[in-house]
Amino acid sequence: MSPQHAAFLEALRPHVSAERLITDPARTLAWGTDASFYRLLPQIVVRALNEAEVAQVLRLAHSFRVAVTLRAAGTSLSGQAVTDSVLVLIQEGWTGIEVLDGGARIRLQPGVIGQHANDALRRFGRKIGPDPASIATARIGGMAANNSSGMCCGTAQNGYHTLAALRVMLGDGTLLDTADAASVAAFRLSHADLLRGLETLAERIRANPALEAKVRRKYRLKNTTGYGINALIDFIDPVDMLAHLMIGSEGTLGFIAGITYHTVPDHPHKASALVLFDELEAACQAVSALKAQGAVDAVELVDQPSILAVQGKAGLPDFLYGVTTAATPRAAALLIETRGASADELATHCAQINTVLAGHTPAAHSGFSTDAAVCETYWAVRKGLFPAVGATRPVGTTCVIEDVAFPVERLAEGVLRLRALLGQHGYDEALIFGHALDGNLHFVFAPGFDSDAEVQRYSRFMDDVGQLVAVEFGGSLKAEHGTGRNVAPFVRLEWGDEAYEVMVDLKQLFDPAGLLNPDVIISRDEQIHLKDLKRLPAADDIVDKCIECGFCEPVCPSNGLSLTPRQRIVLWRRIQQLRRDGSDAALLAELEQQYGWLGLDTCATTGMCATRCPVGINTGTLVKKLRGPTERPALAETLERHLGAVVGTARAGLGVLKLARGVLGADRVHSLNEAVHRVIPVVPVAPVATPGPAGALPADVPASAGEPLVYFASCVNRAFAENPGGGDTLADAAFRLLRKAGWAPKLPAHIATLCCGQPFESKGASDAALAALRRTEAALLQASDSGRGPVYLDNAPCALRLIEAQRAGQLDARLKLHDAVSFLNDQVVPRLKLTPQVDQLAVHVPCSTSKLGAGAKLVALAKQCAGEVTVPDIACCGFAGDMGFNRPELNANSLKRLKPLLPEGCGCGVSASRTCQIGLASHSGIPYRSLEALLDDCASPA
Question: What is the pLDDT of residue 450?
Fold first, then answer.
């Protein structure tokens, strides 16, 4: 660490708690990584919680002359969110959402994930305008700072044009809130020179008609190259200029501390179609005709190599498999979406679009689908093209995505010229796709940056791209991904000397010391785009295809506590690289030591990361591999053989816990438990909502009483009671419910000894897990008459374990296994009459239920039991089997947002996993019930 950084850090310590000041090499590498193809190692990472802390960082940075980069989600693609100085993370503590004017406006803090903003607006039939493909991960601060747009918003609905008000902090720590008249008035006095400087720059542009015309023309296209100097001529008031200049400024002019958007309609009726053309030119001509017709909301162009890249994806039309390199080398597909305020309006739009398409002779047409699942499949494949390309690259190469815009009337010519240019430089693997209505194209390729020759090849290619797009076509070198480092050397080429000098003077006006995100947008280094290029060395076959996009991070329960899946991979890559080259033994030893807790001990291994990863990487699989087999396999096998006694001992322990709470009080017992755990970590912590012991399982039902059904009671539901006080079991409520629907549930023989094997598998005791699986298989086969009757699995994690084992050929295929949620939805509730008994209900979809594809069914069932249902965006509660007892900090970290997400008056929750219910109840302050008990309260025979 440099002396000035060390002095800066010491001065900052009184203002930011020590655990949020990160300087160790493991976490600075992990936290300093973003989705771009640049790698810089910050000297200090600050996890700021509020504006006061950011203000201190900026003031001290000015005093000690250290550079500062602010970042939210790290999904930026062009190098604008990495630094070798001070990185300030804006995530936790910055997630405030306030819906205004019945949804017409929304006020957001910069740490809000874009999708969460849309979730808050959904009931109003509105959404925010920007819609980047990364919206489920990207945060509002980064979206605004990059002027992110996306597939549907075009230019009219981007952040610039939907901005209502801005809360911005300048480099000197001054805060301006344009929605607050007093703040504006004070700013006009304190920063009169700055505002006069903006007026002077505006006058310079207006005094030059050719320059003014150029600025207006450039912003008819999507354009994020350089600063948004259209703000200087779009507005008269310099405060308005300042606010709009911040959109797309990439943290180089100030910090966006809050933003208020005008929202846009989110029409409830939508339809999507895939249309194939044998010739790229015909597809582009159809795009122009569709844009003129006006019934479409989005049109995505996918070139022939891109079609080939997604042919293996499920749910796509069969005709795409007819595209081959030899037969249709110039094929292209259009993914079209249209929307309507009503079903009739939607049908009219579909008919109008089909008429236009018919005039351009498509080779095939899927027809418009209004099925949400079909449409989601189409768009998920499109959104995943960038990471999917990265997954097919040779190991060791880097995935680069570039983002340009051609005048839409010259789109076909632009695509062909760009394809030829890629081939000329040897990037034959490249894919081209993008937002065709705006002439906006992305192209993805995989250069190797491990030699000077490869770097120079990339340099020559970028020079030619600049000439082609900016000079020959008058387009944008950066349409929506931001200038960053990669295009900073080309801003002058695209804009010309006069406009570029305006941008240089603008940067000087706001940041004369050059401390705010230097070398981004404006750089004196003409080679900056060729420096600090990221290499992705081999680490493990499980994760080598990761391109560090970060899409996995929002669903990771250890996000913010230790590492995310992306960060685990980044750090493991570095460890493996150091092991191979032997260049720094001391650093390697330190990283390996830290990886134990950061990378392995605190990973829930639930695999939710794979559900968000476009190429399905399950980092939990890597973690399980690195943890290795259990060190005491004999003990695991002994426990498996005596499982009945183990569960009995657990019930006894729960009885002691109940007794102790009655004598000493629940809070005191919990405090003592936590104190002992801190001293002796092997002693588990019982969360405050841990229930008492379960009672005896219900008796069998004669077969004549209904249709036979085998009920597999999981060990966790045999140990924990359904109600906090203990006694009753989940099976009590489930049997009552099932009988009402005409089923005759019965337990398999020796149920007390049965287990799905998940507890052993998660600990690396594979032999014990397999033995448990075999014992359960035999009992279920016997109870179900060799698979003739259905088997009901009452706990979602156990259901996932058994169903996946059967899919993998490890369990007899004759068994008809049903997870509880799906069986209740499909074969129980249709036979019942449900009367809602709850006013407000919170629903948690466990990881296992999501993986089983039953999440929507769980929510649908809950809606039949309550007046209003809330589904907080908690993808994984972090309890993860027994980790909630042994690593309670993981559960607490994952659920720290839960209570604020619950609506006022919500007094009850529901889930499909018993351990999830314990964690949720402990951290929300409200009881969480099983789905069976909730339905039982509401159900009567139909």
Answer: 87
